[in-house]
Amino acid sequence: MRNSKIATAVTGFAAATMMFAVPATAAAADTANVTGGPGKITVSAESDFPCWSAYALIDGELQKPLAQADNPEFVITDVAPGSHHVMVVLQVAEGEHCLINPHGIEAFNGQVEVTESNPILDLLDSASG
């Protein structure tokens, strides 16, 4: 009987602790959209955290540039045609100087198809945008 009371108290304490711990991490919407195109992969990311940046790995290789709050989209060019494994990780933090609770969040992990690049269409795209 005594053990069941202790177990009930521990379970109740753990549940109360989780109630306070989960909303802080679950409140942020941390997402990344990844699309393949002709010779390129476009990554756009967003987070509700005040401080964040995103980076992408294509087939395990770290890519530049990075996305961040003031520039949430980047394009990786000169990507070979075919299926590529892409992972986007958001580095997030809180606080005035972005030093509170820094951590990484996997925002996308999947395959993206890249088509053959067409220099004429690329030229038209760059002239219109």
Question: Can you describe what's shown?
Answer:
This protein has 129 residues and is α+β, with helices and mostly antiparallel strands. Helices cover 27% and strands 46% of the residues. The chain is built from 2 helices and 8 strands. Strands 3, 4, 5, 7 and 8 form a 5-stranded antiparallel beta sheet that branches. A 3-stranded antiparallel beta sheet has the order 1-2-6, with no helix packed on it. A hairpin with a 2-residue loop joins strand 1 and strand 2. The protein is elongated and about 45 Å long. The model is unreliable at 3-28 (pLDDT under 50). Residues 1-28 form the signal peptide. Keywords: Signal. It comes from Nocardia halotolerans. This is DUF4399 domain-containing protein.
Tags for this model:
five-stranded antiparallel β-sheet; three-stranded antiparallel β-sheet; single chain; elongated; alpha+beta; disordered N terminus; about 130 residues; 8 strands
